[in-house]
Amino acid sequence: MSVTLSLAGAEALVARALMACRTSEVNARATARALVAAEADGQAGHGLVRVPSYAEQARVGKVDGFAEPTIGGEGAARRVDAKTGFAYPAIDLALETLVPLARNMGVASVGIFASHHCGQAGRHVERLAEDGLVAFAFANTPSAMAFHGGVRPRLGTDPLAFAAPIPERPPLVIDMALSVVARSKIVAAKAKGSAIPEGWAVDAEGRATTDPGGRLGGRAFRLGSQRVQGRQGRTAALGAIPDRARSGAFRRCKFRGAHDRTGASHRRRRR
Questions:
Q1: Is the torsion defined by CA of 14, 57, 112, 82 positive or negative?
Q2: What is the per-residue pLDDT for 214?
């Protein structure tokens, strides 16, 4: 059975689901807007398929659904502390800061740390391009890819995105991961129960697999190419420098008593 929803109706439904799982209304609505926008853009892996995991992570305390991001720094470089909450309220704060800051300074950057999944990177830079700015976004991710010719995941897919305004036309937007395919595509295939094309991922022995549960259960995505291996290092560094994060692989955390990269324990908070 299929149900057709308007974008506004879908946003309201997602927000209610998150609010029922220990998330503030402000954070739930910001997150719902981003997930529904990704779904509408055809990026299903960053869309509604994420709602169950987001809601569960907030419910058990892996994500602080009540976190209120703060911004610091001076001059053209600022840092947003997401307070181990959802990324989208922190991203909204960063973008609201960047537009006037870049116009005043000529160039500006904002790093976000202690954040949850940032979703569709292309949409974030597109919003800046809609305000007349040229924008880049870089992100670090947990290890998911092996080095060229290797088997064990050692590198993140580390997405990068770029957008530029075009007079009287929608902005030019480029959004890519450094693997053969974005992780979100495999997430979407897993949710549908469909196979993935051969060449997207390898199993624990380094053999090609069509199982979308592969890397998500402990296997590896394919690196885009040997040349991309160097680009991954540069992207990891660019994503880490603004928020003083590590540029290496991040440790996966579990729901309870998980540790972020600073060693702080995320315990379930009572509200």
A1: positive
A2: 57
Instruction: Count CA atoms closer than 13 A to 60's CA, side-chain side.
Output: 12
Instruction: Judge whether 64 and 105 are in contact, CB under 8 Å.
Output: no
Q: Which amino acid is at 41?
A: D
Residue 242's nearest CA partner among 116, 22, 94, 131 is 94
The phi and psi torsions of 215 (rounded to 5 degrees) equal -60, -35
| Residue among 264, 254, 263 nearest 62 (CA) | 254
Rounded Cα–Cα distance for residues 263 and 261 (Å): 5
Q: How far, in Å, are 84, 94, 222, 239 from residue 80 at the CA level?
A: 11, 7, 32, 13
The predicted pLDDT at position 220 comes to 54
pLDDT in tens, 222-246: 544 444 444 544 445 555 555 554 4
Closest CA to 146 of 183, 201, 93: 201
> Which position has the higher pLDDT, 2 or 86?
86
Q: Using the Cα atoms of residue 7, residue 12, residue 16 and residue 19 in order, give the sign of their dihedral.
A: positive
- The answer to whether the CB of 142 falls within 8 A of the CB of 249 is yes
User: In angstroms, rounded to a whole number, what is the distance separating the alpha carbons of residues 250 and 247?
Assistant: 8
In the DSSP assignment, the letter for residue 252 is P
- Running DSSP on this structure, what letter comes out for residue 175? E
For 44, other C-beta atoms within 10 Å of its C-beta total 18
pTM above 0.85, yes or no: no
Report pLDDT for 112: 95
